[in-house]
Amino acid sequence: MLGTTPTEFPGGEWEQRYEEALRGVLASGAATDFSSSRHDTGGRIVHRLIRLTPERDRSGMVTSVLAVGRDITELMEQREKIHSLAFFDFVTGLANRALFNDRLAQSITDARWHATQLGVLLLDLDRFKAVNDTLGHNVGDALLREAGARLSRCVRDYDTVARLGGDEFAVLLPEIRDAQSLSGVADKILVAFAEPFLLDGREVAVGASIGIAVYPNDSEDADGLLKFADLAMYAAKHAGGQGFRYYTAEFTIQAHERLRIETELRHAVERRELELYFQPKVTMTDGRLIGSEALLRWKSSAFGMVMPDRFIGIAEDTGLIVDIGAWVLREACAAARAWNAAGVPHKVAVNLSPRQFADGSLEERIAEALSATGCRPEWIELEITESLLLENAERVRGTLEALRAMGFSIAIDDFGTGYSALSYLTNLPIDVLKIDRSFVKDMMSYASKAELVRTIIAMANSLSMHLVAEGVETEEQARFLLDNGCVVGQGYLYGKPMPKHELRVDTGDA
Ligand SMILES: [Mg+2]
């Protein structure tokens, strides 16, 4: 190589530029950097940074150039990675929230300039938490990747699909024809998500809820569009999931209402606004009172009497249910203790929310309620819903077994209305089935419902479980249930939910 210039050996385009740089330093006498990115023999891109420093003789003339090269490949790769971490979600490879926000702002500017419309679509997986909890985070991540891939296949190339966090995805659809055209996209996505996901070798139904907001109809700024799409998504989820909703002003009103209830509810325990009502449970043969179900009422200073269906969902969403549930347990235990101490056996049923199981402190809180009130576990029945059993089967089973070992009995509430998986009836420690009121209500008019009730009763008997019929309102219904082998009833025929002092436990009159 001695005596040859780079262009003479080995020659090439890069050498030409390199030689020009060298000549530049010889001519100017100013040091400079020369960077190059070339494939090495293995085909890998190698980044180099070459520092070119002039060398002078005594008179100050530049006679040669010292070139010192450094391999900066790793540095460049890291820089690229940082860029991608800043703008892309590393689980799915989709745009992240920062990039989505940036593109949304840009698209709004374009839409304003060209007087076009754009859509923001938020999507949330319906059963992500259940998958993550039962199958683990790795499977959860695989689900997110597959969800992202399905979502990307449903939209145009120039739409942006992003993962905003958790199991929440967003799609930005610039230049849409009209708001209605978005329902076509939403439908397509729902069809894609209705297909089961193959996770860890098994098929899992996941489903999605979608909320849609449109520029400029719903909002003219990015924050507004995201907020409104989120409210619409919440509405879709609460309508049962696997569906979509457009934002309407009504959702904002509902959101304000929810917020007002939440704000008041935060103080309900300390302000002593909560009260337990008790609905009698009787043996239908003789009307003898054998127990009661504790039902929550909220006498709010702001709203008056509030029924559970208006605030329990909010309490669950916000986590307030954990404290409220602890209060309910304490009150129910105190009532059970007072009644049983008077010498009449009386079991109080307490409804537990799935959220109380998720909290992890349930056993501890129940033990606290017992020791604070002197109540015995056999005076308490814990009511759970079928949906709980499907969500986190293994963890729930552990908790239920521990509670059963403490001496509590366990009832399945509203039996028959959930996704009935019969296997759990034999696998889990369950003592009582409560036949849902909807079956009792219809069993005298519809042969199919009557047959269903008979089947539930036969099944409970063969599994040695006790039965309680909910919503018994007429003598005719009571007769039918008794004839078929269900002895215990609860309903208006025997008494509405009533304040503690009105329940006549001492005399046995319902
Ligand atoms: Mg109940």
Give a short overview:
With 510 residues, the protein is an alpha/beta fold. Helix content is 45%, strand content 25%.
Mind explaining what this structure looks like?
The protein is of the alpha/beta class and 510 residues long. The chain folds into three domains: 13-77, 2-Layer Sandwich (Beta-Lactamase); 88-247, Reverse transcriptase/Diguanylate cyclase domain (Alpha-Beta Plaits, 2-Layer Sandwich); 261-502, TIM Barrel, CATH 3.20.20. The protein has 18 helices and 20 strands. It has helices at 13-28, 73-87, 97-114, 128-135, 137-153, 181-194, 222-238, 249-265, 308-318, 321-341, 354-359, 362-373, 386-391, 393-406, 423-427, 437-442, 447-462, 475-483, and strands spanning 32-39, 45-56, 62-71, 117-125, 160-165, 168-176, 197-199, 202-204, 208-215, 243-246, 274-283, 288-300, 304-306, 347-351, 380-384, 409-415, 432-435, 466-469, 488-489, 498-499. An eight-stranded mixed beta barrel has the order 11-12-14-15-16-17-18-19, surrounded by four helices. β16 (409-415), α15 and β17 form a beta-alpha-beta unit. α4 packs antiparallel against α5, α8 packs across α9 (308-318) and α10 packs parallel to α12. It starts with 12 loop residues before the first helix and ends in an 11-residue tail after the last strand. The model has no long low-confidence stretch (mean pLDDT 90). It binds magnesium ion (MG). Magnesium ion binds next to loops.
